[in-house]
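Aim 2 progress update. The chain analyzed this quarter is reproduced below.
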Amino acid sequence: MIPIDPSSLRIGLLQATQSDVFSQIQNDALLSSSLWVNVALAGLSILLFVYMGRNVSDSRSKFIWAATLMIPLVSLSSYLGLLSGLTVGLIEMPPGHALAGEEVMSQWGRYLTWALSTPMILLALGLLADVDRGSLFTVIAADIAMCVTGLAAALVTSSYLFRWLFYLVSCAFFAVVLYALLVEWAESASAAGTDEIFNTLRVLTIVLWLGYPIVWALGVEGLALVQSVGLTSWAYSGLDVLAKYVFAFLLLRWVADNEQTVGASAGATTGAALGDD
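Predicted structure tokens:
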């Protein structure tokens, strides 16, 4: 009798699970289409943004362009991970959940995407508004914490209560981000002379980002009022299209047309700071 290596058995089980999830995704037209659309749009956005930034020469504008370009690059990789089943799993919902005891598909890879792409959105906005480094670090840290605790809320299977506790903690971190966008960063953008485009992008970001916790609460991860994984996936994908690709296009188009304003805002702020000293 040939001995079986336990580690090989575990790897085989993981591969089988990934293969099963991959099959489920491919056999669900609503679900798979929500992912393929983002792969296509992310790819097109990368090509478009590279073209739009070809003549950008100001160093600050280049920094904003590089941060913005990372948004579709991260999304492309992430959505390929979702489509392949690599960052998707099946979890059993805990007692108290509307689908208690049932296996539900969890697209946990989305949280990985958000943890890597949303900081780039905030970095681009922070550079545009010329905020100080301390505020930029704090808001980006709160944003990452929001995504990580959101992931915890989605993956906890031991307690329905703890799913919602992690959800509330995630919302608390989100409140820090909202305050910065609504108050602190808006004031900085006004001083930097970039408030017109910043206000447009700020409204777009806040409205769309508020949609994510709402989808979570109503979808299979929360109250399960919407129990279709495909519909939930389309809701997230639709928000991603607007919050990432449309946002990035509007920002890069303005930066490409207003390099002098972007560069002058940084110089003016630095000069004011030196004068204050």
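The chain has one domain: 13-266. Strands lie at 89-92, 103-106. These observations will guide the mutagenesis experiments scheduled for the next reporting period.
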